[in-house]
Amino acid sequence: MVSEKTKNFLSVINVFNKNSMTPTLIIVYAVMIILFASINPLYVSLANIKSIFANLTISGILAVGLTIVMLTGNFDLSIGSTLGVAAIICAKLYNIEGMDIPMAAIIIIAIVAGAAIGAVNGFLVAVVGINSIISTLGTLAVFRGFAYLFASETARIYYKPFISLGRGYLFGNIPNTMVYFIVLLVIMYLVLRFTKFGRDIYQVGANKDAARLAGVSIKKTTFMAFVICGMAAAIGGVVMASQLAFAQGEFGLGIEFKILTICVLGGISLAGGRGTLVGVIVATLILGSISNGLALSNVPIDWREAFQGIILITAILIDSIRVRRRQLLRV
Fold first, then answer.
1. Chain mean pLDDT for the chain
2. Structure pTM?
């Protein structure tokens, strides 16, 4: 016999419940593929599909991290700066003369740095009590400054095994970067779906007072959400550095806008407590595929940026309507 409380929780995380945007997104994605393929048949070629998947993984990785924070009802605007710092750490460590640091150690150091940035954000929000938008806007500027300071010139990477992490293919067709994205996605999906921490994330975002009464540590859950987000952003930085074989201070500049668009489009509520990673996957595919399709359709880059803005505004509008609808149904 399933308790009423469990039923309510499952309805929140169920991919195909009546409030989920995922089925609609899947239909939109299918229509979009047909549309772009009719404009340019190269859109559905194997080479272009491989290119799409290789290029969308960094956005997907960051979106997974930001999803965790948004589910608690907070935001992390510093993910682009964290990505840049992690990429620069990788490049700089490979350029230390006389030192041969193992690749695994370099990757771990970069991810730990991301976790540390996340911990700073988590401390400011969960412990000090500063609004997440204000605090992460501040850390965005601080760590972007560090990125420019330590990478005033482009830092190149010549270590081929590291470069192959971002440019290689599994079985000749599956980009390595897609594998990293899927692994991270599966891990976080299982965490959110089947662990106490995952339930706490949803409960904190849905109703902090009720979560506190249920014995959930608001501060600890919020703090850990920011740490996970920082680690995900750092993984994105490692992947970007390996793909491009260099790092510079501009890495990740302005990417927060795109990642927020993915999360909101994927059904992650701005109010917190609602949404699934499945929706985020589809939204990542849509944004990555749209960008590629517009490029193949010879749409000017300025219009592509404007189109993403239109998508974000539309997604926020839909989210606001859904929130108001739920409030009216409770009355």
1. 86
2. 0.86
